[in-house]
């Protein structure tokens, strides 16, 4: 039986500042570093050992993975980074303070942008300082593939090819896998793994730095789910 551990990155600097982050590359806050290290300690305490690690191409997730692996004595585990595990792209909301945005557009509209499964936020302009079209880490992608905005539905469609090509084959081969990524990319994976409805997924929260452990049978059916905490 294979195991999959999902960890949402520790608190980021923009989580702390209450800003829409999306694909903008920000670092972990001091609290975020401690959350990531604590995740690694919990992993070690529960005797979880990994064969493969995955993360996004964003610093806050990469560092979370490294801290967790280091604390659990597994920094050597093979690691693959992919833009497909990036946070949901918040479009024109990226870089804005969430409260100020709610004051401008209304709480209800901002709630819809944040929580609706298939409503898109406004697109970001390519000349915005918060756009990723000129970011070197995406230089090998067709420019049309780089999102200008995403909802959870689009995020799921972007994540699934990576699940099908990498994560699922590893699990089917009996490997234990750890993924350090983001609230929405992990919610997308959780929706698929647990077959959660479009309506119910809106109520799912991923706590920063909390390892979620799935155990699968040889048909990738979930036989157990456990959240690790102190």
TrEMBL record:
<feature type="binding site">
    <location>
        <position position="60"/>
    </location>
    <ligand>
        <name>substrate</name>
    </ligand>
</feature>
<protein>
    <recommendedName>
        <fullName>2,3-bisphosphoglycerate-dependent phosphoglycerate mutase</fullName>
        <ecNumber>5.4.2.11</ecNumber>
    </recommendedName>
</protein>
<feature type="site" description="Transition state stabilizer">
    <location>
        <position position="182"/>
    </location>
</feature>
<keyword id="KW-0324">Glycolysis</keyword>
<dbReference type="GO" id="GO:0006096">
    <property type="term" value="P:glycolytic process"/>
</dbReference>
<keyword id="KW-0312">Gluconeogenesis</keyword>
<comment type="function">
    <text>Catalyzes the interconversion of 2-phosphoglycerate and 3-phosphoglycerate.</text>
</comment>
<feature type="binding site">
    <location>
        <begin position="87"/>
        <end position="90"/>
    </location>
    <ligand>
        <name>substrate</name>
    </ligand>
</feature>
<feature type="binding site">
    <location>
        <begin position="21"/>
        <end position="22"/>
    </location>
    <ligand>
        <name>substrate</name>
    </ligand>
</feature>
<dbReference type="InterPro" id="IPR029033">
    <property type="entry name" value="His_PPase_superfam"/>
</dbReference>
<comment type="pathway">
    <text>Carbohydrate degradation; glycolysis; pyruvate from D-glyceraldehyde 3-phosphate: step 3/5.</text>
</comment>
<dbReference type="Pfam" id="PF00300">
    <property type="entry name" value="His_Phos_1"/>
</dbReference>
<feature type="binding site">
    <location>
        <begin position="114"/>
        <end position="115"/>
    </location>
    <ligand>
        <name>substrate</name>
    </ligand>
</feature>
<feature type="binding site">
    <location>
        <position position="98"/>
    </location>
    <ligand>
        <name>substrate</name>
    </ligand>
</feature>
<dbReference type="GO" id="GO:0004619">
    <property type="term" value="F:phosphoglycerate mutase activity"/>
</dbReference>
<feature type="active site" description="Tele-phosphohistidine intermediate">
    <location>
        <position position="9"/>
    </location>
</feature>
<comment type="similarity">
    <text>Belongs to the phosphoglycerate mutase family. BPG-dependent PGAM subfamily.</text>
</comment>
<dbReference type="GO" id="GO:0006094">
    <property type="term" value="P:gluconeogenesis"/>
</dbReference>
<dbReference type="InterPro" id="IPR005952">
    <property type="entry name" value="Phosphogly_mut1"/>
</dbReference>
<dbReference type="InterPro" id="IPR001345">
    <property type="entry name" value="PG/BPGM_mutase_AS"/>
</dbReference>
<keyword id="KW-0413">Isomerase</keyword>
<dbReference type="InterPro" id="IPR013078">
    <property type="entry name" value="His_Pase_superF_clade-1"/>
</dbReference>
<feature type="binding site">
    <location>
        <begin position="183"/>
        <end position="184"/>
    </location>
    <ligand>
        <name>substrate</name>
    </ligand>
</feature>
<feature type="binding site">
    <location>
        <begin position="8"/>
        <end position="15"/>
    </location>
    <ligand>
        <name>substrate</name>
    </ligand>
</feature>
<feature type="active site" description="Proton donor/acceptor">
    <location>
        <position position="87"/>
    </location>
</feature>
